Amino acid sequence: YTEAWDADKKSIHVMPDTPDILLAKANAANVSNKLYVQAWEEAKKKGYDMRADAIPIKTAKASRDIASDYKYKETHEKEKGHYIGCPSAKEDPKLAWAARAMALQNDRLYKKAYNDSKTHIHIPVDALSVQAAKECQTLVSDVDYRQYLHQWTCLPDQNDVIHARQAYDLQSDNVYKSDLEWLRGIGWLTEGSVDVVKAKKAQELLNDRLYRTRPEQLKFTSIPDSPDVVLAKTNAMQLSDV
């Protein structure tokens, strides 16, 4: 049944110029790393020709000569013995220029005029800035902020003083507990107090000996003609072998 279908599946042929096939090939070429670096690999195989008089070589040599310390000091070394003809070092233009450059770079000389002029500044006492600073200092000063009240002197027999003393005595803890001072050192027995009596009553209620009476303390006498005794005697006579 499936033989014809299997044979038909093997005979399917897709045209190589269909849009899907062309798109797949283009995507494979874009993704391929080998094709991406192919031009670079071929350029490396051809080699390169770098001449000594090429512009990049000359630029590199010139930059190296400029950066070289030997080339930088070569002119100075050649002119060392040619400073003859000046009567003093101040008349030499190069030495004068070096001294001027050193003075400009010196921080102490740069601030000398400013340091000398700092001591010649005079500010009037009634200047606005000085007055504003004084007022600001008064506002933020803790001494001026806290002004203690005047220590008044009151007579001991004034009504307000007497009333204040009475209020202090009422609020005082020592005066409040002064009526209990006579109790200190006095002995006291707990017998008869409320807590002791309550504990005794609770102990009597929880005492098992007082709550129930043991059986051996009860006086018991058996009745000889009770039904259970008579029945026991009859059963004993019936079961007796004698």
UniProtKB/TrEMBL annotation:
<dbReference type="GO" id="GO:0030018">
    <property type="term" value="C:Z disc"/>
</dbReference>
<dbReference type="GO" id="GO:0051015">
    <property type="term" value="F:actin filament binding"/>
</dbReference>
<keyword id="KW-0677">Repeat</keyword>
<protein>
    <submittedName>
        <fullName>NEBU protein</fullName>
    </submittedName>
</protein>
<keyword id="KW-0009">Actin-binding</keyword>
<dbReference type="Pfam" id="PF00880">
    <property type="entry name" value="Nebulin"/>
</dbReference>
<dbReference type="InterPro" id="IPR013998">
    <property type="entry name" value="Nebulin-like"/>
</dbReference>
<dbReference type="InterPro" id="IPR000900">
    <property type="entry name" value="Nebulin_repeat"/>
</dbReference>
<dbReference type="GO" id="GO:0071691">
    <property type="term" value="P:cardiac muscle thin filament assembly"/>
</dbReference>
<dbReference type="InterPro" id="IPR055297">
    <property type="entry name" value="NEBU/NEBL"/>
</dbReference>
